[in-house]
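Hey, quick one: can you model this chain's 3D structure?
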Amino acid sequence: MTVTDQSYDAEFGDFFALLKPRVMSLVVFTAAVGLLVAPVSMNPVLAFSAVLFIALGAGASGALNMWWDADIDQIMKRTQGRPIPAGRVTPSNALIMGLWLSVLAVGMLGLTSNWVAAGLLAFTIFFYAVVYSMWLKRSTPQNIVIGGAAGAFPPMVGWAAATGGVSVESVLMFSLIFMWTPPHFWSLALFMNHDYSAAGVPMMTVTHGKPYTRKQILIYTVLLTPITLAIAFTSIGGPVYFAAAVILSVGFLRGAWGLFNRSEDIATGDDYAAERGVFKFSLLYLFALFFALLIEAALRGLNLTWGAWPVWI
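Sure thing. Here's the predicted structure for all 313 residues.
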């Protein structure tokens, strides 16, 4: 079966699914945190508008990605139910929707916030749709390492929407998500390896094998830890964030170490509980860390500062 542009009966929910709402929720949350923890307060209406247009930009990226990946989505079990391979939306409609939403999101963010944030959003869409989807994903096992930058930009865009610029804090939030992405997706790839292999996607598990991938998960989790902790000693951090960072980092490192020592004789068939566990924990890890940053911002807003808490930057 091939994906064609025949006339389909699409419903609103099918077009909404093109936006990848689950992925969008993470983008919206991290972008909103980047905006809210910034040292410059925004008018609530403008702040809401900024997050909305960032969300539309993320949705545009999702639609463009689904348009380009329609051929492999119909092969992979995890993605066969998406609107295009399932025959509910035509590829051309997905492309048009993605392009129009991109223009709308970038233009309106520039008009309602500033053009630095709009430029970062435009680059994010380009990076995800072109650099990652069209180039890296099908050409190198480093696809998710380099391509992870697309998912790391939202808090930087949110920060820029509030401040009009980039800072050490926003770069560290970017770096946190950038380094988190490989162990997050590789843990998924460990128990979805058949899908990637069948679709010809050179994920690390396909090109280098699962033991090597487990080793890389551990390495990247170790490299992620100092970045996670460093944020505690910036103007957006504090003891609450530091405590969360320590506890969550220990949990992530423990999970990565467990995967590294996991025998392939055990991790066969449906016995991927450890891999699924690390994947789910990685989601909790990111959400909890950014939520801790929100708590720190709320405490600063209430003038409940920590006095002698060290701030390096």
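One thing worth noting: The chain is about 70% helix and 0% strand.
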